[in-house]
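User: Before I run my own analysis I want an independent prediction to cross-check against. Here's the chain; please return only the structure tokens and, at the end, one sentence I can use as a sanity check.
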Amino acid sequence: MKNQNALIANNEPLLRDLQLFCQVARRSSFIAAATETGLSPAHVSKRIATLETMLGVKLFNRTTRRVNITSDGEATFVWAQKILEDVGAMFDALSGGQREPQGTLRVCTSLRLGREHVAPILSLLRRQYPALEVWVELLDRRVDLIADNFDIDVRVGEVQEKHLIAHRIASSSRVLAAAPDYLARRGQPRVPADLAQHDCLLFRSRDDRFGVWRLVGPNGAETVKVTGPMASNHSDIVRQWAHDGHGIIMASRWDVAASLTSGALVQVLPGYHQPADIWAVTAVRSSSSAKVRSCVAFLREQLAQGPYALAGGRARQ
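Assistant: Structure tokens:
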């Protein structure tokens, strides 16, 4: 461990500059990288200039509004990512799994799950491992884990990418719900096929014209094509529309648990659900790192029984 610490100390300035360079390259902005790291834009610019002098190449073309990576910068970016990943992997391997999690942990997840559960859980994780630097992005869209350079994507629903590793961290399902006044006006659906005649509030991307809801019930899996007068790519908006009585929503059980308990929403077709487990998705290259392993285990534990546990969900191994 003493030799490892010495190696880090001797090379720390270069490694930090490479990390900073990667952040500037991803953001195409000194200001954005400075905000992300807590440094001043002037200091970021100075460190990048130092790295350019050391390497003997120009990494960025600078304008008043933006910095554009050069061809030499693109080649450097590939090498820098590999160097930083290999350094972390080396210390994880040599520590025999006993190394305390450290370095930057980049996590993305959806807005409501992130705000209400993942972000506060990561706050608890950071208290336990103060050497971690945590970056969280909340997005109601699917990200490219590798291209966007995230360590973990915490997502709801099936993981289809074969090149990624999916760790189930909680079991859950999606249910149908609507406001009492909507059901008083339009009546209760009796079978999934009835949903085609109802206003269904859709959480979807802007290019989708309709939704397909896949439900599991007494007769197995059933599929129904649904439409409605209102749709959004933001889950909080769709849920609020359901509260306002505009139609039927499909949402994770934990997401509408409080509304169902208070009576603001009523479950529709209670014998039907859509499986929607929560997964921590990682790339192969990062799945064995100490920071990723610790985060996945901590999320699984806290989502089950911590102060920010999911309502109506249980953790799974």
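Sanity check: Residues 2-27 form the longest helix (26 residues).
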